[in-house]
Amino acid sequence: MATISNLKELLKKMKPTLQEEKYYIAAVDKSQLFGLAGYMQYIVCVYLEEEGLTVVFTEPLLQIIEQATEEKVAGPFALITLSVNSDLMAVGFLAKISGALAKEEISVNAFSAYYHDHLLVPYEKRNAAMKALKKLQG
């Protein structure tokens, strides 16, 4: 599958897709990783940081995570997937996205996976975020 690195082409061809579920972010102790394995259907992302594991998950896991951590759980967020075959070395794509959302006073937590970039925006601003992204497409 050919990837796109040209910024204008990336913006034009991206297809922002809004997921319906509510998403949350929490920090959990590294020792809890294997305990979460039985809930993988609710986990979107796990990132190992020096301080612990950051977990992005859907609402069915909320109560379990809240009981398992002393840290505050953040959310709810909406998840927007930028469906475009972006090159992992493309320059400026997320900067343009973040800038467009910032103009609308929408906070964003972005993360990239191998195939797509993903955005977590405040759940109550999900429709405004989608509108801003579609406007960015030109």
Model description:
By secondary structure, this protein is an alpha+beta fold. The chain has a single domain (7-136), classed as VC0802-like. Helices cover 29% and strands 32% of the residues. It is built from five helices and seven strands, in the order αββαββαβαββα. Strands 1, 2, 3, 4, 5, 6 and 7 form a seven-stranded antiparallel beta sheet that branches. A hairpin with a 2-residue loop joins strand 3 and strand 4 (52-58). Helix 4 crosses helix 5. The chain is globular, with a radius of gyration of 16 Å.
Roughly what percent helix? Answer: 25-40%
CATH superfamily: VC0802-like
What is the third-level CATH name, the topology? Answer: VC0802-like
Q: Which shape, going by the Cα principal axes?
A: globular
Tell me the distance between the termini. 25 Å
Largest sheet: 7 strands, antiparallel
Keywords:
138 residues; alpha+beta; VC0802-like; 5 helices; 7 strands
Write the layout of secondary structure elements.
Layout: H1 7-13, E1 15-18, E2 23-28, H2 33-36, E3 43-49, E4 52-58, H3 62-68, E5 74-83, H4 93-103, E6 109-112, E7 117-122, H5 126-136
Antiparallel strand pairs: 1-5, 2-4, 2-5, 3-4, 5-7, 6-7
Helix pairs in contact: 4-5
Quick overview of this protein structure:
The protein is α+β, with helices and mostly antiparallel strands and 138 residues long. Helix content is 29%, strand content 32%.
